[in-house]
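User: C-alpha cells for both sequences below?

Assistant:
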Amino acid sequence: MGKSSENGRGGLGRRTLLKGAGLALGGIAAAGSDVARAAQQCLGVGDCYPTAERRDRYSLFERLDTISPFRPVAPGEMRITFMGSGFPPARPAQEMMSVFVQVGEGPGGTKPDQVVLDCGSGVAGNYTAMNVGFARMDKVFVNHLHGDHMSDLTTFYCFGPATDRKKPLYVWGSKASGVENPWFDPGRPEDPATNPRFYEDGTIEFCRNLRKACRWHTESFSFLSTAVEGWQDETLKWVPASIPREKVDPGDPDGDGFALYAIELDWEVPGVAYDNAETGMRVTHFPVVHARKGSMGFKVEWNGLRMIYTSDTRPETMCVEQASGGEGVDVFIHEMVPPADATVLRSLRLRQVPEEGTALRAQFDETVAMVQTVYENSHTPQGAFGHLVSRITPHPRLTVAAHFSVGDDTIACAKQSILNHCGDWIRWLGRQPLLGDERGYMTWAADRMVLSVTRRGIKQLRADVNAYAPAPLSAAQGTPLAPKYPSPTSDIDTTRVIQPGEDTYCASGY
C-alpha cells in the first residue's frame, strides 16, 4: 500500500536530517553502527528548541477522528488506550502513566480480555471517562514501583469491592531489587528495622504494606457485600507454577474483593507473566534499565498481534532484542524525554538561555545539571530514542513515544532528532490509518488516545469523553455473600446523628 497523504515526514528539510540529536545518546551510540556514527554532530538547544510551534496545544491529537468510550472492542481487534501518558509532575493535560490493553473475541471463540499496564496518579478519572469499571481493572502489571506508575493502585484496590469487582485484585511486579543498602553498618547486627542490609522492596512486600495502609478504608466499606459465591483462583491457570504468588494478608477470605494477590516476577531474565488459554492473551516480561534494579518492560501477544510497553528505561539493548526478529511488533511504546536544557527552558517558561553571569543563568545551569543526572539514572532522551528505534529490525508498524510532555513545540524539536537517526523510513501517523503490513510510522501518546490495532491496519483516535460523566455502574457477576459487618451503622456511633423526620428532612433524600 502507498503512504497516506496525511501521514508523512512533516515537512522538515534535508539540513535537519544532517544534524545530530541533542544530548545524551549515551552508551547505546557507542555500539558502532553506521547510524550511531552518523549522529555525532549534535544539536545545541538554540538549534532545536525553542521552536516556533505552540507550547499550549497538541494539534495532531485535536484533529484525530473520535471514538466513543461505549464502542465495544471488535473481534480481531487489540485496543490500546492511554489512560495516562505524562511525565512528573502531573499536569491537567496528562496524568501519570497507565496503558489499558483490551482484546476482542478471537479465532475459535476465545473470550475478550484486558490488562492494565501501570496505574500512576490521576488515571482513575480517565478510566471512568472511558467507561471502564473496576471489574475490568483486576489485572494490574506494574513496570516498577515509582509513584507515577503505581499511585492509583490505591484507588483501584479500595473502591473496586464497593462497585463491580467482587473478587480479588491481582498485581504483577518485580521481585526485590537485591541492591545493598549503602547505609548498612557491618559493625552492628543486621536488623530489618534499624540496620537492614537489603530492603524488602519487591512487589509482595509492597502489596502487603498497601493492604495494611488501607485497613481503615477496607473495614469501613465492609458493611457492603465484597464477594460472590463460587469464586475460583484463576491465577493457577494464568501464572506458571514456578512464579511466587501470595495473598498478602492470610486473614482475608480467598475470594474477597479486598483480598490482594501479588505475583512476583524475576526481573533479571525474560519470562512469562500471564498466559490465558481461554482468551489467547499472553504477557511476557523482560528487564530494562531504569533507576534501580527491578524495572521491567512487558510484551502483550494475542491473535498474531504484538505490542511492547517498555515503560521507563534508559536506551538499552533488551528493548531492541524484544522488538526485533520474526514478524516484528505491531506497536512499540517507549518513553522519551526532551534534552535536559530544553526541558528546563520549557519548565522555566523561557524563550532562550539566560545571559551568563545572571542569577537566572545560575538557576538554569544548576537545574540542567540536576535533570541530566536524573536522565543518566533513568530516561531516554529523544536522540537516543531515535537511535534505539533505528536498530529494531523489522521496524515496528507503529512506534509511540510516551511519558513525554507533549506540545507542538516539544514534538517539533523531537522530530528533528528522530529524523536524524531514522532518516527516510520514519513517517508520522496522522488521521489516516496505517494500512495492512506497512511499517515505520510514529506518533506521540496523549491521555485518552486510542490505538485500534488489527491485521488490516492501525488507526489512532481521540476518545470523545464527557469530563462530567458519572462513573460506570455495572452489576457484579454472581450471588453476593453476606457482608463482614451486619449493617451500615454497626461500626459508627450514631448518638449525634440528625435522623430524618417530620421536623428535619425526608428519608428519601429530597
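Moving on to the next sequence.
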Amino acid sequence: MFTAFLIMPAKTALRASFVVLLVLSTLTLGVSYATTALDDTTATVAAQRYADGSDEPIVEPRDNVTVVATDSNTWLGEETDDPRSKAELVAFDPDGSVLYYNDSHTRYWDVDPVPGTATTVEYAFSDHLSGSACPTDYDPAAYGVNESVWNEYEQARADTDACTLNGVERVNLTTGELTRVWSQVTPGKEASRHHDVDRINETHLAVADIYLDRVFVVNTDTGEMTWSWNASSDFPRSGGGPYPVDWTHVNDVEVLPDGRLMADLRNQDQVVFLDPTEPSDEALQENWTLGAEDDYDVLYEQHNPDYIPREQGGPAVVIGDSENNRVVEYQRTGDGWERTWTWQDARMQWARDADRLPNGHTLVADSNGDRVLEIDRSGDVVWSANIGFPYEVERLGTGDESAGGPSATSADIASSRGSGPLGALWVDVKGSLSGPVFSATQYILPEWMGFVEFGAVVLFALTALAWGATETWWVARRRFRRR
C-alpha cells in the first residue's frame, strides 16, 4: 500500500493525504462521542439514584464523605443535554453510594464542613434572576459603599436585564435539613457571582466580593458589614481585567488560624494576605503576596488557594493553577515563596481546586477535565469520578480544605508531570496553548469533547481549508496556462 502511494501522481497522493486526515479526525470525534457523550456522568447517575432512594455504589469507596460542587457553562444556568450545563451539589457516602443531591441553584461554589458535625456543610451558591425579579433600586449604604462607587459598577452592567442572588446555605447531608444563612443580590450576572464565603465565628462571615472587587466581613445576625478591604486601595486599575466589570475576579477568601485573611485575585495572578484588624488601606501585607501580575510561571489566573499552617509543615499554599493546567504548592521561605510541588497530567484542564488531606493525598477538582480525583504521595491517581464541570471537592472528616494536611516538603510528596513520554508530550502541547482564550473554548464545548477531540476539530478544519485552497490554486494555475 505504501509503495502504491509513492507511485501515485502528486495530485492524487496529496488528495489521498487530505482524505486520510479528514477520516482520522472524523473517526476520533465519532468514537469519543459514542463512548463518552452517550454515557451518563457520575452526577447524572447520582441524581437518579438519590431520587430512587438507591444505596447502590456509583463511585469507588473512600474513608469518609466526599462532597462535590459543580459550576454551569450556560449563561443563565438553563439546563441542556450537556451535563456541564447543570449545577449540582452531590455527596458520596464512604461506600460510594449517593448520600445527598441537589440541583436547585444556578451555580454551586465553595463547600466547608461545619465544625462539631459529621455530615453538615455550608456552601456558597448563586442564582441568576431575570429583570422582573430584581430590585428596582439598590441602597449603596447597605453594601457599605458610597453612591459614586456603586453607580460606577452598576452602570457598567446597565445593559444586562438580570441580577444575581448570592448566598450561603447550611445543609445536613444525612437528613436534608436546609437553612439559609446569608444572602445578597448584586446587579448583572457576569462577574457578579460570589464564589467563596468563609466562616469567622458563629455570627460573622468573610466574603470574597467578586462584584465590587473586595473582601468584606458581614454580621449574619444584623446584615451589617463590619470591615472591608478594597483592592483599589493597593492595586492599579490599569492591571487585571477590565475595570469595573471584572477587574480582580476575587474568587476565594480563607480565614487563617492567626486571624488573617487570605484572598485570591485571579486576574492579577496573585494571592494576598490581609489583616482585618487594620483599616482597608493598611490591611494588605505586601511581603506575603504570592505571585505577580502576568508572571505566568508562578501563577496564571488561579483558583481556591488553601493554606497549610506551620504545625503541618507550612506556611504553604496549595493552589489550582488554572490556566497552567496544573495544581501547585508554594512553601514560605523567609520573605518569599518557593514552588515545592506540581502535579498535572494529559487530561488536566483548568483545575480549580486542590485540597491536601491528612494522609498526604491531594483531592482535586479538574473543571474542564470533567472529573474529581485523588492523588497519592507518589503522584498516582487512586480515586476518581467523572463529574461535569466540578468547581470544588471536599472530603469531610479531614479538616476544612487543606488545614489538616501536611506540606509537600514535610511529607516528601512527589511531583508528577504526565504519565510516560506521550503524557508529557500532551502536557507540553497544552502548555503552549494555555491561556484564557483556549480555556474559553473548553468552557463552552460539550462534556465529551476534551483536548484531543478539540484537536481533531482543528485538524479537520485546517485540512478542509488546505484542501479547498489547494484545489482552487490548481484550477487557477490551469486557467493561467491556457492563456
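User: Anything stand out in the second?

Assistant: The longest strand covers residues 120-130.
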